[in-house]
Specification:
2 helices, about 210 residues, elongated, 9 strands, alpha+beta, five-stranded antiparallel beta sheet
Length: about 210
């Protein structure tokens, strides 16, 4: 039925809207009720009832996002950013991106006015974030919270250095003397044991 009126009683009637108009109203309500990437949240259900988005509560006021996004997979007006593409405090890494990297959909922006309080519109590739953009467009800016410390100033840990720690050379002369003393002691012990056995053998012979 495209539209019309259904009579349910003498005093009451239900007016029907065209079927296409119902679909349009539903789509409008669904779009208006779905939180966007970067919106504030407390629970992941604040971001989506379908479970396809989560609330990053480590960000100020919560941040609606999609975890483990792939390049060009985020919704419109969002950018897939890989944070910690290299191991923090370690210039050497045998995997690129590193195994510590985590990707999130971040709200795209062109100015600070498009970001909510506590966030700034910045290039995630710049310091102190030093992140990677996984999308084809590499000049995007996103609404991001400013961290408290600059990770690019962290010195390399000793375990991350490609060269091993300095080891003092072995004193061969000392080791030779020790080896000679050990050999003499062992020889004397063996002679004493063998001599004792000879005595026992002589006693048995009598």
């Amino acid at each position: 039925m495209r539209g019309g009126t259904v009579h349910v009683s003498r005093d009451r009637e239900i007016r029907l809207l065209p079927r296409g108009l119902y679909a349009l109203v539903f789509a409008f309500c669904a779009a208006g009720c779905t939180p966007s990437i970067g919106d504030k949240c407390t629970l992941s259900t604040d971001c989506s009832l379908r479970g396809d988005r989560l609330c990053d509560t480590s960000q100020p006021g919560g941040y609606c996002t999609i975890f483990n996004c792939a390049g060009n997979s985020c919704p419109d007006y969002a950018t897939c950013v890989l944070f910690h593409p290299s191991i923090q405090g370690c210039g050497y890494d045998d995997r690129s991106p590193s195994r510590t990297g985590r990707s999130f959909c971040m709200a795209s922006c062109s100015g600070n006015s498009e970001c909510r309080g506590g966030y700034t519109c910045e290039d995630p590739l710049a310091a102190p974030w030093n992140a990677m953009i996984l999308d084809n467009n590499q000049v995007k800016r996103v609404c991001i919270a400013v961290p408290g410390a600059r990770v690019d100033d962290t010195p390399d840990a000793a375990v991350c250095q490609t060269a091993g720690p300095a080891v003092p050379p072995i004193d061969a002369a000392t080791r030779t003397v020790d080896a000679g003393v050990d050999a003499a002691v062992d020889a004397g012990s063996d002679a004493g044991v063998d001599g004792g056995n000879d005595v026992d053998a002589g006693a048995d012979a009598r």
